[in-house]
Amino acid sequence: MPATAEASTPSTVLVVDDNDANRTLAQGALEDEGFRVLLASGGAAALEAFSAEKPDCVLLDVRMPDVDGLTTCRRLRELPGGDETPVVFLTALRDVDTFDQAVAAGGDDFLTKPVNPAELVIRVKAALKLRQMRAELREHYELLRHQRDALMRVQLQKERLSAFVVHDLKNPVSAMDLHAQLLLREAGLSDRGLESVRTIRKEAQQLNRMILNLLDLAKGDEGKLVVALTTVRANRLVEGVIEELSITASVRSVRLESEVTVEDIRVDAELVRRLLINLTENAIRHAPRDTVVLIGVCPAHHGRVELRVRDSGPGIPPDQRERVFDPFVRLDHERDSNPGSRGGRGLGLAFCKIAVEAHGGSIRVEDADPGAVFIVTLPAA
Predict the structure, then answer these.
(1) What's the pLDDT tens digit per position in 64-73?
(2) pTM of whole model > 0.70?
Protein backbone atom coordinates (compact mmCIF):
# COMPACT_ATOMS: atom_id res chain seq x y z
CA MET A 1 0.00 0.00 0.00
CA PRO A 2 1.45 3.39 -0.92
CA ALA A 3 2.25 5.84 1.80
CA THR A 4 -0.34 8.32 0.49
CA ALA A 5 -3.29 6.03 1.15
CA GLU A 6 -4.62 5.26 4.60
CA ALA A 7 -7.42 2.98 3.42
CA SER A 8 -6.94 -0.76 3.03
CA THR A 9 -7.19 -0.56 -0.77
CA PRO A 10 -4.34 0.89 -2.86
CA SER A 11 -4.73 4.13 -4.77
CA THR A 12 -5.37 3.79 -8.50
CA VAL A 13 -3.31 5.72 -11.05
CA LEU A 14 -4.31 6.05 -14.71
CA VAL A 15 -1.24 6.34 -16.96
CA VAL A 16 -1.98 7.87 -20.38
CA ASP A 17 0.80 7.88 -22.99
CA ASP A 18 0.95 6.82 -26.64
CA ASN A 19 4.49 5.43 -26.13
CA ASP A 20 4.62 1.80 -24.94
CA ALA A 21 8.01 2.20 -23.24
CA ASN A 22 6.87 5.27 -21.28
CA ARG A 23 3.74 3.45 -20.08
CA THR A 24 5.74 0.40 -19.03
CA LEU A 25 8.29 2.54 -17.14
CA ALA A 26 5.57 4.39 -15.23
CA GLN A 27 3.64 1.18 -14.53
CA GLY A 28 6.67 -0.58 -13.09
CA ALA A 29 7.66 2.34 -10.87
CA LEU A 30 4.14 2.79 -9.48
CA GLU A 31 3.34 -0.88 -8.99
CA ASP A 32 6.60 -1.30 -7.06
CA GLU A 33 5.19 1.26 -4.60
CA GLY A 34 1.89 -0.59 -4.23
CA PHE A 35 -0.28 1.46 -6.56
CA ARG A 36 -2.92 -0.07 -8.80
CA VAL A 37 -2.17 1.05 -12.36
CA LEU A 38 -4.49 1.49 -15.34
CA LEU A 39 -3.06 2.09 -18.82
CA ALA A 40 -4.41 4.04 -21.78
CA SER A 41 -2.66 4.75 -25.09
CA GLY A 42 -4.64 7.85 -26.04
CA GLY A 43 -7.06 10.52 -24.91
CA ALA A 44 -10.29 8.76 -25.96
CA ALA A 45 -9.30 5.54 -24.18
CA ALA A 46 -8.29 7.57 -21.12
CA LEU A 47 -11.72 9.21 -20.83
CA GLU A 48 -13.42 5.81 -21.09
CA ALA A 49 -11.14 4.32 -18.43
CA PHE A 50 -11.68 7.30 -16.15
CA SER A 51 -15.48 7.03 -16.38
CA ALA A 52 -15.39 3.28 -15.70
CA GLU A 53 -12.69 3.09 -12.98
CA LYS A 54 -12.64 6.53 -11.25
CA PRO A 55 -8.86 6.55 -10.62
CA ASP A 56 -7.34 8.57 -7.81
CA CYS A 57 -4.69 10.24 -10.00
CA VAL A 58 -3.97 10.64 -13.72
CA LEU A 59 -0.55 10.79 -15.40
CA LEU A 60 -1.21 12.44 -18.77
CA ASP A 61 1.11 12.91 -21.74
CA VAL A 62 0.73 16.32 -23.44
CA ARG A 63 1.50 15.24 -27.03
CA MET A 64 -0.70 12.38 -28.32
CA PRO A 65 -1.92 11.71 -31.87
CA ASP A 66 -5.69 11.21 -31.40
CA VAL A 67 -6.81 13.50 -28.58
CA ASP A 68 -3.95 15.48 -27.06
CA GLY A 69 -3.37 15.69 -23.33
CA LEU A 70 -4.59 19.27 -22.94
CA THR A 71 -7.95 18.46 -24.58
CA THR A 72 -8.20 15.22 -22.61
CA CYS A 73 -7.68 17.07 -19.34
CA ARG A 74 -10.36 19.67 -20.15
CA ARG A 75 -12.86 16.91 -21.01
CA LEU A 76 -11.90 14.90 -17.93
CA ARG A 77 -12.64 17.88 -15.70
CA GLU A 78 -16.21 17.86 -17.01
CA LEU A 79 -16.80 14.22 -16.02
CA PRO A 80 -18.26 13.23 -12.62
CA GLY A 81 -15.38 13.32 -10.11
CA GLY A 82 -13.02 14.72 -12.70
CA ASP A 83 -12.78 18.10 -11.04
CA GLU A 84 -11.29 16.59 -7.87
CA THR A 85 -8.83 14.13 -9.44
CA PRO A 86 -5.20 15.30 -9.62
CA VAL A 87 -3.70 15.36 -13.12
CA VAL A 88 0.09 15.29 -13.55
CA PHE A 89 1.17 16.28 -17.06
CA LEU A 90 4.14 14.56 -18.73
CA THR A 91 5.92 16.46 -21.48
CA ALA A 92 9.26 16.61 -23.28
CA LEU A 93 8.81 20.37 -23.75
CA ARG A 94 10.23 22.30 -20.80
CA ASP A 95 9.08 25.84 -21.54
CA VAL A 96 6.80 28.53 -20.16
CA ASP A 97 4.18 28.25 -22.94
CA THR A 98 3.64 24.52 -22.41
CA PHE A 99 3.48 25.04 -18.65
CA ASP A 100 0.86 27.80 -19.02
CA GLN A 101 -1.23 25.64 -21.36
CA ALA A 102 -1.08 22.71 -18.91
CA VAL A 103 -2.21 24.90 -16.02
CA ALA A 104 -5.00 26.46 -18.12
CA ALA A 105 -6.24 22.99 -19.10
CA GLY A 106 -6.59 22.07 -15.41
CA GLY A 107 -3.31 20.29 -14.67
CA ASP A 108 -2.15 19.98 -11.08
CA ASP A 109 1.53 19.28 -11.71
CA PHE A 110 4.09 19.26 -14.51
CA LEU A 111 6.79 16.60 -15.02
CA THR A 112 9.30 16.71 -17.87
CA LYS A 113 10.65 13.77 -19.86
CA PRO A 114 12.77 11.72 -19.71
CA VAL A 115 10.99 10.78 -16.49
CA ASN A 116 12.99 9.68 -13.47
CA PRO A 117 10.99 6.78 -11.89
CA ALA A 118 11.74 7.91 -8.34
CA GLU A 119 10.65 11.48 -9.11
CA LEU A 120 7.48 10.19 -10.80
CA VAL A 121 6.48 8.26 -7.67
CA ILE A 122 7.22 11.27 -5.47
CA ARG A 123 5.08 13.54 -7.68
CA VAL A 124 2.16 11.08 -7.67
CA LYS A 125 2.31 10.74 -3.90
CA ALA A 126 2.49 14.52 -3.58
CA ALA A 127 -0.50 14.92 -5.91
CA LEU A 128 -2.55 12.45 -3.86
CA LYS A 129 -1.53 14.18 -0.65
CA LEU A 130 -2.53 17.52 -2.13
CA ARG A 131 -5.86 16.02 -3.11
CA GLN A 132 -6.46 15.09 0.51
CA MET A 133 -5.39 18.55 1.64
CA ARG A 134 -7.63 20.15 -0.98
CA ALA A 135 -10.64 18.32 0.40
CA GLU A 136 -9.82 19.48 3.92
CA LEU A 137 -8.40 22.94 3.29
CA ARG A 138 -9.53 24.00 -0.18
CA GLU A 139 -8.91 27.69 0.32
CA HIS A 140 -5.35 27.19 1.61
CA TYR A 141 -4.60 24.68 -1.12
CA GLU A 142 -5.57 27.09 -3.89
CA LEU A 143 -3.29 29.74 -2.43
CA LEU A 144 -0.39 27.31 -2.25
CA ARG A 145 -1.01 26.08 -5.78
CA HIS A 146 -0.98 29.59 -7.22
CA GLN A 147 2.25 30.35 -5.35
CA ARG A 148 3.83 27.15 -6.65
CA ASP A 149 2.72 27.93 -10.20
CA ALA A 150 4.19 31.41 -9.96
CA LEU A 151 7.49 30.03 -8.67
CA MET A 152 7.58 27.41 -11.44
CA ARG A 153 7.03 30.06 -14.11
CA VAL A 154 9.76 32.23 -12.60
CA GLN A 155 12.15 29.26 -12.59
CA LEU A 156 11.40 28.42 -16.22
CA GLN A 157 11.84 32.06 -17.24
CA LYS A 158 15.12 32.18 -15.31
CA GLU A 159 16.37 29.05 -17.10
CA ARG A 160 15.45 30.51 -20.50
CA LEU A 161 17.10 33.86 -19.71
CA SER A 162 20.25 32.11 -18.44
CA ALA A 163 20.43 30.03 -21.61
CA PHE A 164 20.15 33.16 -23.77
CA VAL A 165 22.79 35.06 -21.78
CA VAL A 166 25.27 32.16 -21.76
CA HIS A 167 24.78 31.54 -25.48
CA ASP A 168 25.23 35.23 -26.34
CA LEU A 169 28.47 35.41 -24.32
CA LYS A 170 30.21 32.93 -26.63
CA ASN A 171 30.70 35.39 -29.52
CA PRO A 172 32.38 38.27 -27.62
CA VAL A 173 34.62 35.85 -25.69
CA SER A 174 35.69 34.18 -28.94
CA ALA A 175 36.42 37.64 -30.38
CA MET A 176 38.60 38.49 -27.37
CA ASP A 177 40.62 35.32 -27.90
CA LEU A 178 40.96 35.98 -31.65
CA HIS A 179 42.25 39.54 -31.13
CA ALA A 180 44.67 38.30 -28.47
CA GLN A 181 46.07 35.81 -31.01
CA LEU A 182 46.45 38.62 -33.57
CA LEU A 183 48.32 40.78 -31.04
CA LEU A 184 50.70 37.93 -30.27
CA ARG A 185 51.82 38.06 -33.91
CA GLU A 186 52.76 41.73 -33.68
CA ALA A 187 56.54 42.12 -33.87
CA GLY A 188 56.74 45.38 -31.92
CA LEU A 189 55.23 44.24 -28.62
CA SER A 190 57.41 44.49 -25.53
CA ASP A 191 57.97 41.52 -23.26
CA ARG A 192 55.55 43.02 -20.75
CA GLY A 193 52.98 43.52 -23.52
CA LEU A 194 53.37 39.94 -24.69
CA GLU A 195 52.88 38.68 -21.14
CA SER A 196 49.70 40.74 -20.79
CA VAL A 197 48.28 39.49 -24.09
CA ARG A 198 49.05 35.88 -23.14
CA THR A 199 47.22 36.45 -19.87
CA ILE A 200 44.24 37.94 -21.72
CA ARG A 201 44.12 34.93 -24.01
CA LYS A 202 44.43 32.47 -21.12
CA GLU A 203 41.57 34.15 -19.23
CA ALA A 204 39.42 34.30 -22.40
CA GLN A 205 39.95 30.56 -22.92
CA GLN A 206 39.01 29.86 -19.31
CA LEU A 207 35.87 32.01 -19.64
CA ASN A 208 34.93 30.15 -22.83
CA ARG A 209 35.31 26.82 -21.01
CA MET A 210 33.06 28.11 -18.22
CA ILE A 211 30.41 29.07 -20.78
CA LEU A 212 30.60 25.65 -22.42
CA ASN A 213 30.39 24.01 -18.99
CA LEU A 214 27.18 25.93 -18.23
CA LEU A 215 25.65 24.92 -21.54
CA ASP A 216 26.58 21.27 -21.05
CA LEU A 217 25.33 21.22 -17.45
CA ALA A 218 21.97 22.48 -18.69
CA LYS A 219 21.93 19.76 -21.37
CA GLY A 220 22.87 17.16 -18.75
CA ASP A 221 20.01 18.24 -16.46
CA GLU A 222 17.59 17.80 -19.37
CA GLY A 223 19.12 14.49 -20.46
CA LYS A 224 20.21 16.01 -23.78
CA LEU A 225 24.01 15.80 -23.53
CA VAL A 226 24.90 13.31 -26.28
CA VAL A 227 28.45 12.12 -26.92
CA ALA A 228 29.93 11.82 -30.43
CA LEU A 229 32.38 8.93 -30.13
CA THR A 230 35.56 8.90 -32.22
CA THR A 231 38.89 7.09 -31.93
CA VAL A 232 41.45 9.43 -30.34
CA ARG A 233 45.20 9.04 -29.78
CA ALA A 234 45.52 9.22 -26.01
CA ASN A 235 49.03 10.73 -25.97
CA ARG A 236 48.01 13.54 -28.35
CA LEU A 237 44.97 14.32 -26.23
CA VAL A 238 47.08 14.63 -23.08
CA GLU A 239 49.83 16.60 -24.87
CA GLY A 240 47.21 19.10 -26.05
CA VAL A 241 45.95 19.57 -22.48
CA ILE A 242 49.50 20.12 -21.20
CA GLU A 243 50.22 22.64 -23.95
CA GLU A 244 47.03 24.60 -23.26
CA LEU A 245 47.69 24.80 -19.51
CA SER A 246 51.46 25.30 -19.66
CA ILE A 247 51.26 29.02 -18.86
CA THR A 248 48.84 28.48 -15.97
CA ALA A 249 51.14 25.83 -14.50
CA SER A 250 54.26 27.94 -15.02
CA VAL A 251 52.79 30.92 -13.18
CA ARG A 252 52.17 28.66 -10.17
CA SER A 253 55.58 26.93 -10.48
CA VAL A 254 53.92 23.56 -11.12
CA ARG A 255 55.21 21.02 -13.64
CA LEU A 256 52.81 19.07 -15.85
CA GLU A 257 53.82 15.51 -16.74
CA SER A 258 52.08 12.66 -18.53
CA GLU A 259 51.99 8.89 -18.18
CA VAL A 260 50.08 7.33 -21.08
CA THR A 261 50.08 3.54 -21.50
CA VAL A 262 47.07 3.30 -23.82
CA GLU A 263 47.38 3.99 -27.54
CA ASP A 264 43.80 4.80 -28.60
CA ILE A 265 40.60 5.56 -26.71
CA ARG A 266 37.08 5.85 -28.09
CA VAL A 267 35.48 8.97 -26.62
CA ASP A 268 33.93 12.30 -27.47
CA ALA A 269 37.23 14.09 -28.07
CA GLU A 270 36.04 17.61 -27.23
CA LEU A 271 34.17 16.62 -24.05
CA VAL A 272 37.10 14.55 -22.74
CA ARG A 273 39.60 17.28 -23.63
CA ARG A 274 37.60 19.79 -21.58
CA LEU A 275 37.16 17.20 -18.82
CA LEU A 276 40.93 16.75 -18.54
CA ILE A 277 41.50 20.51 -18.67
CA ASN A 278 39.05 21.07 -15.80
CA LEU A 279 40.59 18.30 -13.70
CA THR A 280 44.12 19.54 -14.43
CA GLU A 281 43.24 23.18 -13.69
CA ASN A 282 41.77 22.04 -10.38
CA ALA A 283 44.97 20.09 -9.61
CA ILE A 284 47.22 23.05 -10.52
CA ARG A 285 45.17 25.34 -8.29
CA HIS A 286 45.78 23.12 -5.24
CA ALA A 287 49.29 21.83 -5.98
CA PRO A 288 52.16 23.25 -3.87
CA ARG A 289 54.89 25.15 -5.69
CA ASP A 290 57.65 23.08 -7.30
CA THR A 291 55.53 19.93 -7.42
CA VAL A 292 54.19 17.82 -10.28
CA VAL A 293 50.66 17.35 -11.59
CA LEU A 294 50.52 14.00 -13.37
CA ILE A 295 48.01 13.28 -16.15
CA GLY A 296 47.68 9.58 -16.93
CA VAL A 297 45.76 7.28 -19.24
CA CYS A 298 45.96 3.58 -18.44
CA PRO A 299 44.02 0.34 -19.03
CA ALA A 300 41.58 -0.90 -16.40
CA HIS A 301 39.72 -4.17 -15.81
CA HIS A 302 37.43 -5.70 -18.45
CA GLY A 303 38.68 -3.53 -21.31
CA ARG A 304 37.88 -0.24 -19.61
CA VAL A 305 40.16 2.79 -19.56
CA GLU A 306 41.11 5.09 -16.69
CA LEU A 307 42.04 8.77 -16.93
CA ARG A 308 43.93 9.99 -13.85
CA VAL A 309 44.92 13.47 -12.71
CA ARG A 310 47.09 13.53 -9.59
CA ASP A 311 48.44 16.38 -7.45
CA SER A 312 50.33 16.74 -4.17
CA GLY A 313 47.96 19.22 -2.54
CA PRO A 314 46.04 18.96 0.74
CA GLY A 315 43.74 16.17 -0.50
CA ILE A 316 40.02 15.72 0.15
CA PRO A 317 38.54 14.04 3.26
CA PRO A 318 36.74 10.75 2.45
CA ASP A 319 33.37 11.98 3.77
CA GLN A 320 33.45 15.00 1.42
CA ARG A 321 34.58 13.40 -1.85
CA GLU A 322 31.08 13.08 -3.33
CA ARG A 323 30.24 16.73 -2.63
CA VAL A 324 33.24 18.01 -4.59
CA PHE A 325 31.29 17.43 -7.83
CA ASP A 326 28.42 19.73 -6.77
CA PRO A 327 28.39 23.21 -8.39
CA PHE A 328 30.03 25.98 -6.32
CA VAL A 329 30.58 23.67 -3.32
CA ARG A 330 32.78 24.74 -0.40
CA LEU A 331 34.09 21.67 1.37
CA ASP A 332 35.41 23.50 4.42
CA HIS A 333 33.39 26.29 6.08
CA GLU A 334 36.57 27.46 7.81
CA ARG A 335 38.56 27.68 4.61
CA ASP A 336 39.31 31.39 5.02
CA SER A 337 41.00 30.72 8.34
CA ASN A 338 42.65 27.52 7.15
CA PRO A 339 44.65 28.11 3.94
CA GLY A 340 45.55 24.42 3.71
CA SER A 341 41.94 23.29 3.31
CA ARG A 342 40.64 22.32 -0.09
CA GLY A 343 37.27 23.30 -1.53
CA GLY A 344 35.60 23.21 -4.88
CA ARG A 345 35.14 26.24 -7.10
CA GLY A 346 32.74 27.03 -9.90
CA LEU A 347 31.30 24.49 -12.32
CA GLY A 348 34.37 22.65 -13.58
CA LEU A 349 34.06 19.48 -11.51
CA ALA A 350 30.26 19.46 -11.89
CA PHE A 351 30.76 19.48 -15.66
CA CYS A 352 33.28 16.62 -15.34
CA LYS A 353 30.69 14.42 -13.64
CA ILE A 354 28.06 15.21 -16.31
CA ALA A 355 30.55 14.52 -19.15
CA VAL A 356 31.69 11.21 -17.63
CA GLU A 357 28.13 10.01 -17.02
CA ALA A 358 27.21 10.90 -20.62
CA HIS A 359 29.94 8.41 -21.66
CA GLY A 360 28.47 5.77 -19.36
CA GLY A 361 31.48 6.02 -17.05
CA SER A 362 32.18 7.06 -13.47
CA ILE A 363 34.40 9.53 -11.62
CA ARG A 364 35.81 9.37 -8.11
CA VAL A 365 38.49 10.87 -5.86
CA GLU A 366 41.11 8.89 -3.94
CA ASP A 367 44.06 9.67 -1.70
CA ALA A 368 47.34 10.28 -3.52
CA ASP A 369 49.32 10.35 -0.24
CA PRO A 370 49.97 13.25 -0.40
CA GLY A 371 47.33 14.99 -2.44
CA ALA A 372 44.34 13.77 -4.40
CA VAL A 373 43.90 11.74 -7.57
CA PHE A 374 40.78 12.13 -9.68
CA ILE A 375 40.00 8.88 -11.51
CA VAL A 376 37.69 8.69 -14.51
CA THR A 377 36.68 5.17 -15.57
CA LEU A 378 35.33 4.88 -19.11
CA PRO A 379 33.56 1.79 -20.45
CA ALA A 380 35.17 -0.55 -22.94
CA ALA A 381 35.05 0.64 -26.56
Answers:
(1) 988 999 999 9
(2) no
